[in-house]
Amino acid sequence: MSTDLDLDSKIALLMSLAAEDREGGPGRDPSMPLPPRLRHATEVGALRPFNLRTVRSSGPRAQKTTLLRILMTNACSFNCHYCPMRRDREMPRTLLKPEELVRVFLAARARGWCEGLFITTGIPGRPVKVMDDLITVLELLRDKHRFTGYIHVKILPGVEQAQVERITALATRVSVNLEAACGEHLTRIAPEKNLATTLTTLEQARSLVMHGRAEAAAGKPADALRPGGRAGMTMQLVVGATPDSDRTIVGKIAELYAGGGIHHSQFSAFRPIRDTPMEDVRATPALREFRLYQADHLMRAYGFGADELAFDDGGNLPLTLDPKVAWALAHPELFPVEVRTASPTRLLRVPGIGPASARRLVAERGQTTLRGLADLRKLGVITSRAAGFLTLGGRRLQTTRWSEQLGFWRAEDEIGAPHIMYDVSPGTFR
Ligand code: SF4
Predict the structure, then answer these.
(1) Block means of pLDDT (10 residues each) for the chain, length 430 residues?
(2) Separation of 76 CA from ligand 1 center, angstroms?
(3) Is 302 found in the same domain as 328?
(4) Residue whose CB lies within 8 A of the most ligand 1 atoms, among 242, 278, 424, 428, for a mutation test
(5) Does 370 share its domain with 240?
(6) What is d(CA 178, CA 234) in angstroms, rounded to the nearest whole number?
């Protein structure tokens, strides 16, 4: 970034490089076969330090908030094998001081480009020093500028307990990057990292989030300048950089969810980066990342246990099947489900029926007689998926069970042939 530019020009330049950082499924349009986040993975600017991310708050009054995602620095003393910012890789490095980062964010917000902030960073030098800079950013925003909006910040593993307490008090959401589900595998791709240390930091933050929630439940008034991580934590894993199977990954996150305080997980499909020790390793299909998001959603919103999901012989979620469909096809003894009498829990297990449509079905069937697919569609049921798994008044709605309708997009379409290498990766510093 040129230092000759005035702030207006600098922000205009940075924002011209910003793009969406949205998770999601592969596009139905054949020209857009990748999830939104990976669509620009090979373009100049994908390693940009600025990006936009939209988050939706949970609860009955869910709102969308656009966050400016800022990479505080792409300098790093660590040497993770998969990361474009690793110490031994030649690349231009840049760093925003806390005051600069705050000025850029406030200026971008004043222009209406974002409402909140998401800060991530490389680790140049000691993690405790970098953490102090992050804390300074949040203190400036909360205490000097009285910013009461959404701030999501990464906590670096192994920092001091007092730092975890300070940053969690100031942030709306804190997150910890696990990178891998297995400690031994993590050390192979990130020699300076230690999963046990990461989990200790995660537990320190988690107990603070849980304590804050308990206080809120007991009636303590909310303090917008000290939200205490009330949006819940997140954790991130790089998928495919280690031999960890989906079963291992899903089992690990389920174990961590059980302790409470964690809102969701983020998965980043591995991409081989030029001039790294893993440049010859095959890219992980974007579809695998998407299947893990679906499985994660099934566990958090549908009550699925990790051990209930259907895995293939290698312990992975089938790429060609939505995990809920894969589960339903593996349990023919539980289907068809009768729409007029099934419990909400049974309805929720039917592919094509989500929590909202299950609620509407139960409410509507108490007042009226549901007669066919058109009635179900009006209540939000995706009948192209659900019909083969349902009966209505004892009548089958469709004889064939939906398997997967990804005619536009096949697993083998995935980018990531072994000879393709990337200079940038949109996933390694999420
Ligand atoms: S993954 Fe994080 S710690 Fe590892 S080299 Fe990249 S920025 Fe540094």
Answers:
(1) 51 45 51 52 46 61 79 89 91 85 89 89 94 98 97 96 98 96 96 97 98 95 95 94 97 97 92 91 88 94 95 94 92 95 96 95 93 93 92 85 44 41 48
(2) 6
(3) no
(4) 428
(5) no
(6) 10
